Amino acid sequence: MKPTERQSALHIGELLSGPLGTIADIPGVTVGHCTLDEGAMQTGVTVIRPHPGDAFLDKVPAAASVINGFGKSIGLVQVEELGTLETPIALTNTFGVAAVAQAQIRAAIRANPQIGREWSTVNPLVFECNDGFLNDIQAMAVTEQHFDNACAAASTDVASGAVGAGRGMSCFDLKGGIGNGSRVTAIAGRDYTVGALVLANFGRLPMLTVDGVPLGRVLAERAAQAASAASIAKPEQGSIIMIVATDAPLDARQLKRLSLRAAAGLARTGSVYGHGSGDIALAFSTAYTVPHASDFVTLPPLLADARLDLLFRAAADSVEQAILDALWSAASVTGRDGHRRLSLRDSVPDLAQLLKRAS
């Protein structure tokens, strides 16, 4: 979905969005998708590049928060220990993690043949959600080439919905996928932007809350009472990956605090971080880089902790907006064994009127 179409979705909170309404409102950040859409293969890869240069040579500060750890990601341990990213961030399905990590390593070695020999090894970073309802996940269709294709496609024109890693994802028993949001806030006389990209694959329909309105319960009441009760009884077993970027000068400790606020935006949509869910947030800053080969690192003046509240608010609003964007932007998809997920707009053609009546 293009930014002009994205603006027709409900705006969350009072802070203004950036001009694109995506994570690419952070200068230097680009996103690329590679989508597999062929019969039972409904999956893909999404790549987030923190800046246009070499992520290994010029690392960016980062930190992650694990809200609920039922996930199979690669690379979180080193991010926690060192507080930096050294590859693009990759998103894919659960069984595609190994192939994408291998692709990240090969790409880093092509750019820097000293890796693993004269230099240290590289830390790939891959996040995942399980798209097995719509996608034949056992086919392990994701390959290294798909990661390379997503990298090559990276730009500031960021699509949302059933694209890239989001192709086969479900959200609140509807079609989920990739979502974007951004917010701009003024701190100490200067504007800073927070952007979010989510891979939304969680929730049960009766739980869905849109800007405080219990939309899911209203939709469930439209269905047969028996079907509604069965839906309520099902556990929340999905997952969500939340990537938060900012141009504010923060260190890794502060970024960990920022990443944790993604959970506030997630909770507002109705998630309770179920037992079987993998809910992970990562935050990074583009305000400075950490050179790979340097004896000293020069940091810009960092924001004081006492000035972070508006960034926390922007992160929560951006994540909530991104989840809504994923639902709003997704197209209905039919995949493995005829399984089908309807988009929010196909399911609720009177969405605007319904929200107005329920609020």
From TrEMBL:
SUPFAM superfamilies: DmpA/ArgJ-like
Ranges that cross the membrane: none
Protein name, per record: Aminopeptidase
Family in the record: Belongs to the peptidase S58 family.
Gene3D superfamilies in the record: L-amino peptidase D-ALA esterase/amidase
Native organism: Paraburkholderia ginsengiterrae
GO molecular-function terms, A-Z: aminopeptidase activity
Keywords in alphabetical order: Aminopeptidase, Hydrolase, Protease
Superkingdom: Bacteria
Record has Protease as a keyword: yes
